[in-house]
Amino acid sequence: MEKESNHDHICLCPLEGIINIIGKKWAILVISIIGHHDRIRFNDIMQHLDGISPKTLTDVLKDLGKENLIHRESFAEIPPRVEYSLTDDGRQLCEAVIPLIAWAEMRDSADKHRCRASCHGEKIAQKQRTRQKKQ
Percent of the chain beyond pLDDT 70? Predict the structure, then answer.
């Protein structure tokens, strides 16, 4: 007997285009990192991601930009400065990913040992920024 759920008749067609972008190895992580900052620079993103090459990060950022999930702002300065932020669609995606992150965090998984000390520091910093915005 088949189990019925509220999701039996969900059309998955809208996912077809975007899943090719956000399904790539680093995309959700990059969205989440940018989402935890108002604006962030390339090297700062690199510091949050262990094992990503500069070329791969550049490619991911270009793909996310083409999908209008992130905004890239260049400043005419010496040395050149570029900052990344989320678009409205990017913010909505970041919010949609939070339950996935919470689920992954709660799982009894061997990957828990990978969590770096900087992650916990970032959580504290995020809570402080949230409190400051409320005041």
Answer: 73
The percent of the chain in helix, strand and coil, each rounded to the nearest 5, is 60, 10, 30
Distance between CA atoms of 33 and 64, rounded to whole angstroms?
A: 13
- Stretch 112-121: mean pLDDT: 55
> Tokens 């949050």 sit at which residue?
48
Cβ atoms 57, 30 nearer than 8 A: yes
Q: At what angle do helices 27-35 and 54-66 cross, to 10 degrees?
A: 80
pTM of the predicted model, to two decimals?
0.73
Task: Specify whether the CB–CB gap between 94 and 32 falls below 8 A.
Answer: yes
Vertex 88, ends 83 and 92: CA angle to 5°?
Answer: 110
pLDDT over 80 at 45, yes or no: yes
In sequence order, which residues have a C-beta less than 8 Å from that of residue 68 and are 6 or more positions away? 87, 89, 90
Measured over the CA atoms of residue 85, residue 88, residue 89 and residue 91, the dihedral's sign is positive
